[in-house]
Amino acid sequence: MSAGPGKLPVIVTAKVKLNDLVTRFEFAHADGKPLPPFSGGAHTVVEMRDGDVTRLNPYSLMSDPVDPTHYAISVRRDAAGRGGSMFLHDKVQVGDRLVLGTPVNLFALDLTARKHLMIAGGIGVTPFVAQIKQLQTTGGAFELHYSARSQALASYADDLRAAHPKRVKLYLDDQSQQIPLERLLSGQPPGTHVYVCGPRGMIDWVLATAERLGWPPEAVHSEEFLAPQSGKPFDVELAQSGKTITVGEHESLLEAMEREGVDAPYLCRGGACGQCETGVIAHDGTFQHHDHWLEDDERDGSKIMPCVSRFEGTRLVLDR
Amino acid sequence: MTIQFNDETFRDDYTFRNSEWAIKRFPFPFHEDSYMYSVNMERHRGGPDGSVYAKRFDVDEHYIAEMRDRALVLADDPLRCQSLPHMTLAGWDLLELIMVSKSEDYPDLFELHRDGTTWRWVNKPLGIDDTFTFMDEASLPYGPMEYITRQTQGDFAVLDQRENNLWMDAGMVTTQADWSLDFDIGMNFFEWHAPVPLAHEMGVFKRALKFLLNVQQDSPARRLNWTMTVNPLLDTSPENYHKWGIQKTTLTPENVGRKQHLRVELQTFYRLPRSNALVFPIRCYLIALEDLVTVPKWGRRLHRVIRDLPAELATYKGFIDNRPIILDYLSRFDDGLPTSPGIWPDIHSEPPLQT
Amino acid sequence: MSRFHFPPSIHSRPVYGTLAPRAGAAQIMLADAEGAEAILSVAQADPELMRRAHVIYIPKGTGDRFTDPLRAAAPDILHIAPSYGACTQRLHRVFSAAPMGAQIYLAGTEGLIGQAMALALQIGIPKSAIQTEHRGSVARRVQCVHCKGITEDVMTDPFQCGHCGLNLFVRDHYSRRLAAFQGVCIDAEDPGNVPAPVELYS
């Protein structure tokens, strides 16, 4: 059984700089074949070979889900990150070959909803771009409330507003505009679902406001991809594989296992899906849990999510 | 390979028969001499040539007769096929999956010609040649799920994925082992499995759900399930139980080999890409005990499994009253020799029945 | 005492809780017969919330026993209906106008709770916005799996289907969409051999 989703060989067909931070990449199948359809909100894991280092970063697909000729992602330059976005921005060019994971959706529309209320912050708009295209094909009421730092950094705002003038509202920080969340979440008709994608603070704000106003949890959806954080190197004993490996400063535990050829499952690589959950057999030290998956009573040293979490101490033995 | 389709019935005079070919490729469900529930899921990535696993949607000699039987069931009770309003997109997904798979796997029987959204579908065994617009319901005589599943063997449960659960929100169910789509539609994974004894306590459904929620586009899964049916009756529905239940009492030591059938479901699971739903095809294969025991290994093993099955399971599967007659018959084909591991017939390596 | 403790059962069988006041954009309460007691205890716990509530009550043979106390709890709107059928259209209108964040409280018999829940879900109100509390009769609403007819207030097992006349045993398998338990022919394999009916839970 393979560890992650299947692979799609692609060629970069376009690289479009949208503004100082964000660049769009478009891909076609390397063999000229149609790319598989997907559902709005799906992501793909982009495999990047940067010298000796292989990075696997998830990005939301933002092309039309029914268009088999190309996929598109938008990548925000993250100078403080571990280099995946910098690699794409600086090194990947039109004509390059890359490998993508087949689409996986962990932020799907709830198709039972009577109305979809979307709240986006910055680059968090990308899954909604694909979801709106899906709803255009199948019919479905939606509103997008999109907040960005400035007009220049509001990627895709012009396109979205031109296509859906009554359904898309833009709020700009530099003009002191704020999403009127309290009002938006009051008086929505029954069957409305709210979706939020953006920075952690925005997600927390929406979740807390919705809860306070009596919104049931099943009608509130959020997506945040965590980037793995750097940290001190640490050693790990892998009991099933019979290996001891060292996790480097700028790589995740999951990446270190993959580098050593250990078959480790994954889907989101962002601490959300639960797929890579790994049992801890023994430890002497402290965990740095960064995931959204484990329950509090599992963070005591019984489990770890190797895609985002780390360890500091003298000994760690995992059931992998 | 060209398939010779049988002209046969699954009701009234029950002329259903398995050819030698169909017997040898029967999906025998027991990999050892005993049976208990397990999350026996594996990847669905083909299988030995000619086996029921080889193609994504197996077509066999019963195809035309099964489709005729399905049409009769639907005429009598249209509620056997239902789709809640949000499941139309998943219906198109399913239509695409089946048309693409069948035209690639059986090019001599099925053809799909796509020109943008204008699709032409040719089904030679059923004499169908339709041109329609993909994603336009008005261009087909039925909804997309009903259209394609009237042309595909097996039942279909189409499951919406939300709230970390699966919801049975659409289906075509006419060859079921005694469950009602009309009653169960809209239920979540634990609710529609609620009547199954023992398995909940064993945690089987929790583990199975976790597995299924993570089935992805390119990695379908499969498992086998089984029960027993008197007469080769495909439509063992609760709706008609007051009509067919009495047939269970017609079993005698003289007719058990001919009348008693092992009923095996090949269950597969595919992620549907456009809707993010999951489709759960449940393909039913029937075999008379007298045909099954022509494979010595299967005769030995089935006797042991049925003999040792907990009473709760024999009751749930509906053959507790007939178990003594079935065991009397099967014991004649169990000489006590050991059996080889795995489900395959192993005709050439397993010894013939010792008498 | 109007409360009954149902024995543990299978996963599809509804489990009822205890109504508790919950903040929300609107407060909609529906009860029949002794279900009024559950509404009254919410009113007692949070009189302020009760003053914003829209209450629909079906006395179902309890006369004035609960209508006066309900009136005294001073809900924003109190509607007394002679039967569930008589108030279905009103309920549809009220649920459809309920904004997201509205809280729904259902109390009383399984038949009432089930039907109102099915209606609310059909309109799009999420399941966890709906609280339920069983009170009063343990009679069940049962669908005959054979003819699809629904028989209300079934008190015995087995019972005779009011539509097709088959003798049915009552399963715990429950459909939220139909708001009914499943009834299956009891003598299909031995026609005429029908055990004497016994009272449910006896």
Automatic annotation (TrEMBL), chain A:
The UniProt record lists the keyword Translocase: no
Domain FAD-binding FR-type, residue spans: 5-110
PROSITE patterns for the chain: 2FE2S_FER_1, 2FE2S_FER_2, FAD_FR
Family annotation (Pfam families): DmmA-like_N, Fer2
SUPFAM superfamilies: 2Fe-2S ferredoxin-like (SSF54292), Ferredoxin reductase-like, C-terminal NADP-linked domain (SSF52343), Riboflavin synthase domain-like (SSF63380)
Keyword Transmembrane: no
Names of the cofactor(s): FMN
Domain 2Fe-2S ferredoxin-type: start-end pairs: 234-320
Origin: domain of life: Bacteria
Keywords associated with the record: 2Fe-2S, Flavoprotein, FMN, Iron, Iron-sulfur, Metal-binding, Oxidoreductase
InterPro entries reported in the protein's UniProt record: 2Fe-2S_ferredoxin-like_sf, 2Fe-2S_ferredoxin-type, 2Fe2S_fd_BS, Beta-grasp_dom_sf, DmmA-like_N, FAD-bd_FR_type, FNR_nucleotide-bd, MRET
Protein name as annotated: PDR/VanB family oxidoreductase
Lineage, top ranks: Bacteria, Pseudomonadati, Pseudomonadota, Alphaproteobacteria, Rhodobacterales
TrEMBL record, chain B:
Top-level taxon in the UniProt lineage: Bacteria
InterPro entries given in the database record: HODM_asu-like
Protein name in UniProt: DUF3445 domain-containing protein
Organism listed in the record: Roseinatronobacter domitianus
Lineage: Bacteria, Pseudomonadati, Pseudomonadota, Alphaproteobacteria, Rhodobacterales
UniProtKB/TrEMBL annotation, chain C:
All copies of domain Dimethylamine monooxygenase subunit DmmA-like N-terminal, residue ranges: 9-130
Residues annotated as domain Dimethylamine monooxygenase subunit DmmA-like C-terminal: 141-184
A Pfam family: DmmA-like_C
Domain of life: Bacteria
Keywords: 2Fe-2S, Flavoprotein, Iron, Iron-sulfur, Metal-binding, Oxidoreductase
Name recorded for this polypeptide: Uncharacterized protein
Organism for this UniProt entry: Roseinatronobacter domitianus
